[in-house]
Amino acid sequence: MSVRVRFAPSPTGYLHVGNARTALITWLFARKNDGHFLLRIDDTDQVRSKIEYEKAIEESLIWMGLSWDEKVNQKNRTKRYDEIIENLKSEGLLYPCYETAEELGLKRKSQLGRGLPPIYDRSALNLTKEEIKKYEDEGRNPHWRFKLKHEEISWNDMVRGDVRFHGSDMSDPVVIREDESPLYHLCSIIDDIDYNITHIVRGEDHVSNTACHIQMIEAIGGEVPNFAHLPLLSDNEGGKLSKRLGSLSVLEIREKEGLENMALVSLMSKLGTSDPIDAYKDISNLIRDFDFSKFSRNTPKFDAEELMRLNAKIIHDTDFSEVNVRLANMGLEELDENFWNAVKPNLVKLSDVKEWWKVATGPVESIIDDEDIEFVEKAASMLPAEPWDNNTWKIWTDAVKVDTGRKGKSLFMPLRKALTGMEHGPELALLLPLIGYEKSIERLTKQRKAA
Length: 451
Known about the structure:
This protein has 451 residues and is mainly α. It has helices spanning 17-32, 51-64, 78-90, 101-113, 129-137, 184-194, 207-220, 250-255, 261-270, 283-289, 304-316, 320-329, 337-343, 353-361, 373-381, 392-404, 409-420, 428-444, 446-450; strands spanning 4-7, 36-41, 70-73, 94-97, 143-146, 152-157, 161-166, 174-176, 199-203, 226-230.
């Protein structure tokens, strides 16, 4: 069987990490099986759907490296939905209900108070013509429900295994609003049938929806696809995904946080699986390793620190040729391969390179503690003449060590603070030649000049 899948975002907001994970896993499954990936924009909500969100969703997918084979907008398929809806009405599978939201709320409250499950009682099926006319004279417009068969509904879920429901334990789902606009349920399953979708990947919050959808698909005469319901992401404490990076959209992770696309892709592809989480630079490796049998039903935790760790590892493994254009676009046209190789082990994000470029080129606010003034002055007087290379630092500090008797941290830290204005950073053996003699002597003697 040829694999055909879909990712179906609503353009009512930006793409966030939870939906991005669903898109990625769906895409990896399709590519692993040489399948067809459909991008379906669920934009039947004309009030909340916006073209800028649709474009942002596409931009997010492209940035993540996820291409689609076909795209469709639900707003262009209303005639098809109307056709199926009329058929279902004529067959008695959709029925009108006139209760208001307040009346339904009171029914649920009453059922719960009597220890009963809050299932719709189907009272609308018993309305007389006179009662219906009375409601309509009051100006009430009906919402429509799909009439579930009171029989077992089951499927073998690719993540959850055997799943079983019974129609009698569920409320008939509302599928058409009072304004006659169809809800997600019907439009989605009509599209899944028409586009021959074979596998549906979505969050476990849709499990009960799936039970209803299976009966709807069968009622329309479609073939029931396979399902994979993924556990929803939590934050690192097991709560809702709302803290730090978990609350950001994919575009904010790219633009505001400045992270690499493969850091997010690497993390999202392995969360909740038996595979170790590691940094990948090539998405083809993730395609090769993908298998739904590796996914657990346990709740995966999204850790922002883990994302940063992966990002740093990717940066550390990145060659200058892979970032030189991006660096030039950041205004660092003069930054060369030697500089990149010297500082990249100290970068977490690409933008961090600006800090070290400033350290190398200046201006830098040197730090020279009072007790180190004479030592730094002595070291400055022993600074070798250029040309310099990666051995210059050792030659210089060995000589200073012999002359002053200092060693270890008391030798190296004052020099680092004077040269860079910082207590940490790249190896000075690599950084010193990038600073150069003129800037080095200026920083080392700054305290003396000020005095």
